[in-house]
Write a structure and sequence with these properties.
The chain is α/β, with parallel strands linked by helices. The protein is built from 9 helices and 8 strands.
């Protein structure tokens, strides 16, 4: 991180996404990461609170300025394409849970379950179905907890839902699976169009274009919502 900042300037920041152990979170803090997502959402609420509070204390002792994010609710953990909705997904974080979690742990950012889910259903890959975010619940959580909010697993959500979520108080939006799907489709297209090509740098631009198109489309939604505030 030090060398990157020296080469590119202080605008570079690094986030340790979904660290699931305290050792890995501490390693990220010691390496100079600016923020750490400490994810113990697979555990019961009380244990999640206890472990996350410990992580906040440890990480802040290394760097008082580090941003620590915690997560509650079941939204799965990775960019998987599912045949059906995984068990337990769909239960929403309550405003009371969010407030208790933020107050008890001292986290800087909260990632709640509000209709979001990591990965996509197969029917969502081609846009046949979409995720539906509970914008009202986001508003309730924001008003009750006052925390900065991250929307993990936002891939496959309606534009209107994303705009509503930002208006209701979401500060960070993750759309990783959409970008990965665009990358794969770009690679597949390039291989079809150039079946005898073996040079990676001649094949990958098509994938990059797909990623760029998705990123620009979503950024227009996010920025338009911000400008309208």
């Amino acid at each position: 991180m030090k060398s990157m900042r020296e080469d590119y300037g202080s605008s570079i920041s690094l986030n340790a996404d979904h660290t699931h152990t305290l050792d890995r979170a501490i390693a990220a803090a010691n390496a100079g990461f600016d923020s750490v997502i400490f994810d113990k959402s697979s555990l019961d609420f009380e244990t999640n609170v206890k472990r996350t509070k410990q992580a906040v204390e440890e990480l802040k002792s290394i760097n008082p300025e580090i941003i620590v994010e915690g997560e509650i609710g079941n939204i799965e953990t990775s960019s998987v394409i599912y045949d059906g909705v995984p068990s337990g997904v769909g239960l929403l974080t309550t405003a009371e849970e969010a407030t208790e979690f933020v107050d008890a742990t001292g986290i800087d950012v909260l990632a709640p379950a509000v209709g979001n889910m990591h990965g996509l259903l197969r029917s969502m890959v081609d846009g046949e179905t979409r995720k539906h975010l509970n914008v009202q619940r986001i508003h309730e959580i924001k008003m009750a907890s006052g925390a900065l909010l991250t929307l993990h697993g936002a891939s496959g959500s309606e534009d209107a839902d994303l705009a509503g979520a930002i208006e209701a108080g979401v500060n960070i939006v993750h759309i990783n699976t959409e970008l990965r799907v665009a990358w794969r489709r770009g690679v597949e297209t390039a291989l079809r169009e150039h079946p005898h090509e073996v040079t990676p740098y001649k094949l990958l631009p098509t994938a990059y274009e797909g990623i760029r198109d998705i990123a620009l489309k979503r950024l227009r939604v996010f920025n338009r919502t911000q400008l309208q505030r």
